[in-house]
């Protein structure tokens, strides 16, 4: 479960950066909306998967609501999931 959760965290972070650094500029500056749909859907699925897995993982590890909140907030910030992976997940396995 930890490996899948860590992979999801990394993929969610990459999709977030791709969304804001690549597909949204294409949509708004170059009037090319197609990549934004694909990257946006992928990011949405990965975001939901990350949050659900964070909840499950916090429940299994008996972590506090504070730690879940930190993981959730990390998913909202650019590079946040990379930080969460390094600070909270990397040393568990």
Structural write-up:
- The protein is mostly helical and 93 residues long.
- It has four helices and no strands.
- It has helices spanning 2-29, 34-61, 65-76, 80-89.
- Helix 2 (34-61) runs antiparallel to helix 3 (65-76).
- The mean pLDDT is 91.
- It comes from Flagellimonas maritima.
- Its main location: membrane.
Summed up:
The chain is mainly alpha-helical and 93 residues long. 84% of the residues lie in helices and 0% in strands. InterPro entries: DUF3817_TM.
Unreliable spans: none
Order of helices and strands: HHHH
Structural category: mainly alpha
Helix content: over 70%
Count of the domains: 1
SS elements, strand count: 0
- The quaternary state of the protein chains shown equals single chain
Count of helical segments?
4
- Major beta-sheet overview: none
Determine the mean pLDDT: 91
Query: What is the radius of gyration?
Result: 14 Å
Shape: elongated
Termini gap: 10 Å
β-strand percent reads under 5%
Protein name: Putative membrane protein YdzA
Main location: membrane
Transmembrane segments: 7-26, 38-59, 68-84
Keywords: Cell membrane, Membrane, Transmembrane, Transmembrane helix
């Amino acid at each position: 479960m930890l490996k899948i959760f860590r992979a999801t965290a990394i993929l969610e972070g990459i999709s977030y950066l791709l969304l804001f650094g690549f597909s949204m500029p294409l949509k708004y500056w170059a009037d090319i909306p197609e990549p934004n749909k694909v990257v946006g859907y992928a990011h949405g699925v990965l975001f939901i998967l990350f949050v659900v897995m964070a909840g499950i993982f916090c429940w299994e590890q008996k972590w506090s609501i504070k730690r879940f909140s930190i993981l959730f907030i990390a998913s909202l910030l650019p590079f946040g999931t990379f930080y969460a992976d390094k600070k909270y997940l990397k040393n568990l396995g």
